[in-house]
Amino acid sequence: MKRIAGVVALLGALVGGPLAAQEGEGTGSADIPSATPAAKPPEKQCRPDVGCVTNLPLPRFVSLKGSEGNARRGPGLTHRIDWVFTRAGMPLRITAEYENWRRVEDAEGAGGWVHYSLLSGVRSVLVTLDMAELRAAPEASAPVIAQAELGVIGRVLECRTDWCRVAFSGTRGWIRKTDVWGVNADEIID
């Protein structure tokens, strides 16, 4: 019974009526909560370099999980589809978060809002230099073991300061970070 009276007192305070006094509660200002702060919870303040939903850094790289992903104009199924990503494993950069949606962009800056279930934390890179050289070791003097064409997608195995070890269709080697898109210049991946 006491709990119900407390709810009635709060409702009375919110509508400005004398219900609290009628239910036998005190009428002092300390007994009636202020309606302003309780009416709407404060919005979460987010830092521009950290996602509000995941608390992970922004921007950050992920990859497309399947072979197709719709990029929408806004975060929700009611928003128009502006772009369709069609390459499984394609690296994407997350630039914003809203509930279950992530705003992403590709190497050319095209993108939109994608449902998080279409994205994977598996890291990949897109070759940005035609006939980029894969080397046996992370140094310019190491032997070339393969060449990757412009636009080829590879899986990231590790990254050092200037080089990343990647796998392209079973071939593994070291490629310069400047020859790929999908990792930050200062990023180290073990």
TrEMBL record:
Keyword set includes 4Fe-4S: no
Range of residues in the leader sequence: 1-20
Segments forming domain SH3b: 59-122, 123-184
InterPro entries membership: DUF1058 (IPR010466), SH3-like_bac-type (IPR003646)
Chain intervals for the UniProt region annotation (Disordered): 23-46
Cross-referenced Pfam families: SH3_4
SMART domains in the record: SH3b (SM00287)
Protein name according to UniProt: SH3 domain-containing protein
Annotated source species: Rhodobacter calidifons
Classification lineage: Bacteria, Pseudomonadati, Pseudomonadota, Alphaproteobacteria, Rhodobacterales
